[in-house]
Amino acid sequence: MLHAPEADAELMTLRVTRAEPAADGIQLFELRHPQGADLPPFTPGAHLSVRVPSGAMRNYSLCNDPHERDRYVIAVKREEGGRGGSVGLIDGTPAGASLDVSAPRNLFELDLRAPEYIFVAGGIGITPILAMIRYLQAEGGKPFRLFYLTRAASGTAFCDEIAAPGFADADAVVIHHDEGDPEKAYDLWPVFEEPTKAHIYCCGPRPLMDAVRDMTGHWPEQAVHFEDFGSDLVRPRADDAPFAVKLGPDGDPLEVPVGTTILEVLRAHGRKLPSSCESGTCGTCRTRYLSGEVDHRDMALTPAERKSALMICVSRAKSDTLVLDL
Length: 326
Known about the structure:
Distance between the termini: 22 Å
CATH superfamily of the largest domain: Nucleotide-binding domain of ferredoxin-NADP reductase (FNR) module
Shape: globular
Structural class: alpha/beta
Strand order of the largest sheet: 9-8-7-10-11
Number of domains: 3
Largest sheet: 5 strands, parallel
Strand content: 25-35%
Number of helices: 7
CATH architecture of the largest domain: 3-Layer(aba) Sandwich
CATH class of the largest domain: Alpha Beta
Radius of gyration: 20 Å
Helix content: 10-25%
């Protein structure tokens, strides 16, 4: 389990030097130090935690070449059905604005020992994979294949760059649009039918990652890697309902509405609590509870740990009330 430090202790304020569309519904942001200083280094697959205008923290993959020290580049998909982080960031952050961001972290590390790579990107999942490819190209280029799967050409970020001559050998890149029709989905089975010495890196929507996981069950476990930042963990669900939390047995009940997290409610009532990823993956906001039935939605706690703790950035309650040990 990963335990990140409190986010506020390590945030740095960077200048937005570019804010422009990368595709329909996707905004590119370039971030630089306001005094032009070098930025902390990052490795292929790394991400930043960004404080969005609402005050929440959201994770976004770095997509530029990790050899670059003068800038960070992220691409943000507009999630109309999400909790407002991406919408607020895109609508409220023009070029010239400032953003508070964490130092880069990497939960999707590229294994540099692999002799070759197979990359599978679904939609905005291209961002960490693009950084990996740029790194490999700058280092002299181990062989790779890229399968970039999206709904439509208009919403395919970095499409022109990836499709351009010189980006890779013609047979190394597949860009496929299914137009939202399952019958037109790209068939990846021939890619994975026979295990090779390649390492597989997949980033994208949950259905894509589940499909790749099913198709690679006969590959060595250490050769198959996934990343989604817990995006499905933070998205409201159709059966979500409000509930109450109490800080200790004698605390006043605080309502947690649908679309709002326990962490956000506690912050609104003046409690400054540690957090980092706010997507249920890092473990920073782990909190003990005394009673109530938890709807655990994190990717950090073991089954044994879930008997006494929860991640207040994503988890909710199945009971009417949760009593927290705070």
